[in-house]
Amino acid sequence: MSIKPAPERKPGEGQGPFKKLFIKGATMIDGTGAPPRGPVNIIIEGNQIKDVKGGIESPPEDAQVIDANGMYVMPGFVDTHAHIGGEAQGTPAEYVYKLWMAHGVTTIREPGSGNGVDWTLSEKERSASNKIVAPRISAYIRPGMWERGAVRTQEEARDFVRWADTKGVNGFKLSSSDPHVLKALIDEANQRELGSAAHLEQTIVTRTNALDAARMGLGSLEHWYGLPEALYDDRLVQHYPADYNYTNEYDRFSRAGRLWKQAAALGSDKWNTVMNELLNLNFTLSPTLTIYEATRDVMRAREAEWHGTYTLPSLRDFFQPDPESHGSFFFDWTTADEVAWKENYKLWMAFLNEYKNRGGRVTTGSDSGFIYKLYGFGYIRELELLQESGFHPLEVIRSATMNGAELLSEENNIPMDFGVIRPNMLADLVLVGENPLHNFKTLYGTGTIKLNPETNKVERVGGVEYTIKDGIVYDAKELLSDVEQIVNDAKE
Ligand SMILES: [Zn+2]
Predict the structure, then answer these.
(1) Within its chain, how far is the Cα of 142 from the centroid?
(2) Rounded to the nearest whole angstrom, what is the distance from the C-alpha of residue 198 to the centroid of ligand 1?
(3) What is the CA radius of gyration of the chain?
(4) CA of 83 to the centre of ligand 1 (A)
(5) How many Å apart are CA 298 and CA 218, to the nearest integer?
(6) How far apart are CA 285 and CA 448, in angstroms?
(7) pLDDT exceeding 90 applies to what percent of the chain?
């Protein structure tokens, strides 16, 4: 049922937390959208940022020092749609966590807690106390993950939410409940200061589209389903061909690629009215652009350069085209399908960019573990795709840090204590050797190719240097070599 929980953190896995840690001379991107500034010194005590000071300063004698001269420092990244993986993928938790941490992800939201409620809450607790090497975990569970089974009435919905509240979950991942049940789930969650996120399946969007769900008080829309439907102005139901079958993953994904063009035209009255109402409802979009990328370029996703070293054989198998596996729909994927999806992306991205421009919150979720997307790597790709949507790189980093932290804090009505670099915030940070604003590709564990002007030779540069979580400093490249070892062992 569940994958293996992570092993206990071994001595030498991460240094600290320290009484005093002094990050010296970094260029800081603070997560708010403010421009980079440096050199700055960041003083950390235990698991907390105590001070951020500009200029050149010598560290106190009793401080541990990271010489960050020439490096960039950002808040730890938040992945708002991060499945820990499952038996089908054959991915031990250690493998998934280390891939995330190696890419600077220090907080994840588990949308569904597929390994079970108790399993996920136990991992959340073990991560919070740093007994394991893992990002902070915000645990969202699906209706029905209790002894009483499916949640079909409003009363059951409220009972379920109350039960989940006593368990200590952070929120709910909703999908295809009937509208009155969905409404009760969301309402009870909001009353109890628990979060709600929904993947509105095509089987229910005719009754609950994104706007309907936002009006019910839903916190965030996962992916994008339900958004074009909220924007229809000349139909009610997606234009399905007569031989369509939702259970057929090819039908599902290929027709979805023709969906955005069925919505109201970009910039039309309808488009604006819906967007403005979503903004007024303080609705968050967690688009997970990266997980659909194979639809517009299947070869790119399949042949990504990290698969050879970092993708477990069981995960590779899981990714193979197969009518039986979710998301493995490309058993007859055509040029026409890719062309349609490229158009689909343009309309979707234009909506996201304008939503951001009008003050809407867009977060970064990756949904890795499906469709050739590898944990960590898939997350960095999400940053690139937001840039492609029109986001300035500083806006992308803001989405990846502050916005994710705001969403998770707001959903549970707790003060935000991570996601920006400020005194009193938790010491969750990412240190990189290259300027991420110049090129997000430098954040991939495999780095990127760059000409060295001194030698006139091309080199591979990049990869995160250090991921700091709760004041504990992890060498990101060591985390990656642990992952490589796990993969090599599995290959033998
Ligand atoms: Zn998902």
Answers:
(1) 18
(2) 10
(3) 22
(4) 6
(5) 33
(6) 29
(7) 96
**pLDDT at 326 (0 to 100):** 72
State CA 162 to chain mean position distance: 27
Residue-range domain boundaries for the chain: 77-411
Distance 295 CA to ligand 1 centre (A): 16
Nearest to 109 by CA among 236, 195, 217, 230: 195
Query: Which tokens in the block code for residue 44?
Result: 């950390």
pLDDT at 276: 98
Cα 316 to ligand 1 centroid, rounded to whole Å:
18
Q: Among candidates 431, 483, 439, 437, which has minimal Cα distance to 460?
A: 439
CB 24 within 8 A of CB 66: yes
Residue 401: name the closest of 199, 35, 104 by CA.
Answer: 104
- Predicted local distance difference test score (pLDDT) of residue 57: 86
**Is-above-0.85 flag for pTM?**
yes
The residues near 227 (Cβ < 8 Å, ≥ 6 apart) are 209, 210, 221, 263, 285, 348, 351
Q: Position 465: which residue type?
A: E
pLDDT band at 401; cut points 50, 70, 90: very high
CA of 325 to the centre of ligand 1 (A): 14
Q: How far is ligand 1, taken at its centre, from the CA of residue 303, in Å? A: 22
Query: Which pLDDT tens digit goes with each residue over 427-474?
Result: 999 999 999 999 999 999 999 999 999 999 999 999 999 999 999 999
Q: Are strands 284-286 and 361-362 parallel, antiparallel or unpaired?
A: parallel
Fold assignment, 77-411:
TIM Barrel (3.20.20)
Helix 335-357, helix 249-256: angle, nearest 10: 50
Residue listed under structure tokens 């260029």 = 27
Work out the number of other CB atoms within 10 angstroms of the CB of residue 326: 12
- Integer Cα distance of 308 and 85 in angstroms: 19
pLDDT digits (tens, 9 = 90+) for 25-68: 999 999 999 999 999 999 999 999 999 999 888 999 999 999 99
Q: How far apart are the first and last CA of the chain?
A: 25
Q: How far apart are CA 219 and CA 427, in angstroms?
A: 26
Q: How confident is the model at residue 330 (pLDDT cuts 50, 70, 90)?
A: confident
Q: What is the pLDDT of residues 86-118, one digit of tens each?
A: 999 999 999 999 999 999 999 999 999 999 999
